[in-house]
Fold this sequence. Notes:
Layout: E1 2-3, H1 21-29, E2 32-36, H2 50-53, H3 58-62, H4 75-85, E3 89-95, H5 121-131, E4 135-141, H6 148-152, H7 154-170, E5 177-181, E6 187-188, H8 204-214, E7 219-222, E8 235-238, E9 259-264, H9 281-293, E10 296-302, H10 312-323
Parallel strand pairs: 2-3, 2-10, 3-4, 4-5, 5-7, 8-9, 9-10
Antiparallel strand pairs: 1-6
Helix pairs in contact: 4-5, 4-10, 7-8
Amino acid sequence: MQAMDDYAVEDTSGCRLQASPRGIRAFVDARFALSVHWGLYSIDGRGEWVMHSEKIPGEVYRKRMGRFNPVRFDAEEWVDLMLEAGQEFLLITSKHHDGFCMFDTQLTDFKVTATPFGRDPMAELADALHARGLGLHFYYSLLDWTHPAYRNDWPAYVEYYQGQLRELLTNYGRISGVLFDGYWPRFRFRDEDAHFAPGGAWDLAGTYDMIHELQPDAVVVNNHHVLPLKGEDYQIWELDMPGENTAGFNTTEISNKPRAVWWNLNVGWSYYEAKCEIKPAETLMQHFREALACDATFILNVGPTDLGEILPEEQEVLRAFGRM
Length: 324
């Protein structure tokens, strides 16, 4: 992808709704949160982009479903760890760019409940979080490398992704937020990556209003690396502090909306077996303090294994936050 100086963003001026004042206040007050990148790609242990980076054909990648069985996943243990760390909400991948759904959607069989695991981890996490008074935010990728309608029938794809959001917003109790990824208007795709580009408008205005209608307290953000659009409730920086662009893809512009900083604890976002490079707790705490000084919520990411375990070394760093 190549950054463009001149770019256009989708018009969301038709949005009627924003998150409620109570929802905004809950987000602003939550200074520290846990992010989790976990999915079918965790089997390979080479990052969440493995299907694209290694050019794995869709039919080959799909066969990994037969081996996905995270028998050591325990929602109660994850949420207990959050409490030890002092975190106030969970942001978790419900669907990443590979299109595999980590929830029991009725709109595709490319989902976790069609694997040997057979369970819905989103439902189990929702129950554990709600029982402890913690928030649940869903990450959802607009980009989809495997759904046929993404390339061949754009209106059908928009209907599909909005239908999945409706499921996420109605089947899991109180939802505190939704983060979108995969829409990057500042970047031009190379010829070999042309399939990343959307086939038309996302109907973001309709999507944002649907979220705020179904879950009035849910805050919406889009990781598009530009200023927030109408209908979006906060601005996020990925591996950067507000106003900085050391990563090369963030915006230096700062809106008047609430802010968040999104950081990873390990070398990447999801489990990477050969490159386990845990960042020192002291370094991450310094980032946390810098985020607080910028009046931003600090969201720290871990990548569980395909068995559903958060690495012990990652757990220890999180516990260090609770002891500071």
